[in-house]
């Protein structure tokens, strides 16, 4: 007679397999739905032990579903698997869905027109079956010098996700991450006129804790750092810096965010955004944006009692100095996680004379500056962050840590 392991014991074993210890600030605090590869492999093995183990392990395995357009396993496309999951009892377990274009399979599985059409047709009905979805990550493109999708294919993919978010009610959605080619593409969320049958974007965005918006295509060659990427005419007609308002409008309608990430290829003017006065961020990540000291001071002052994590990368400071910015960050009592990468000043404007010489691509510096006071501000911020970490029982970072070392 086979030994039946009680459900409670199975749950305890599975919980032990997926348990992780996070010492630093992490988005896992907000969205604990991902699994490392070892845990996933162990869970798949546990599913084969017994029905009780299968039920307990499946609860975690199906929390995160990855269903890219352009990949397949053992002859089955990921979209086929996505359909099967959405029609099964496991649909209720799904908390995190990642779909759209998969950059890892670009050369192995190029996208064809039929795949795009299939994806556009099935996304909304499949999404509607995920009754407890918390995080949605969608990629309509990827930053690359090689174009793997035509402009028409990109539009079809973008229209598919916009339609899904306009007509499918996702009452528990907390995190949204979007990769679009151009800032101009975000305008699809705000058509004119707006149908009365649409779910208002305000309703969708009001419940978000995490919002990440990425612009992945260059719209001009001027300002590219090391190697020039050709800009197709379809992109050049809509410069990212002139159409960033479409992207920022989504941020402005999300007053309850705890984590915000904005990244772009071309530098876009983040200081033009009008964020909600109710915003209380714990995490802020900005890549390739133009900002002013006054805007940084206002935003960090508003979120002073909440910010734990700040990550500026390739950020250009239009007014003020980085010493002023880094000194301002020392006013954040809970800051324990900061990473600074290749931040500096723009080519033009009042700070152009402070711009440093561009470092070698394989030897980046945290600050690209001619102002020696900026690095003094960085050293003072390192000491401040480490003091906060020690006070919480966390390991202090080494002075040569890659997060801020040169």
Automatic annotation (TrEMBL):
This is Protease inhibitor. It comes from Aspergillus eucalypticola (strain CBS 122712 / IBT 29274). Keywords: Protease inhibitor.
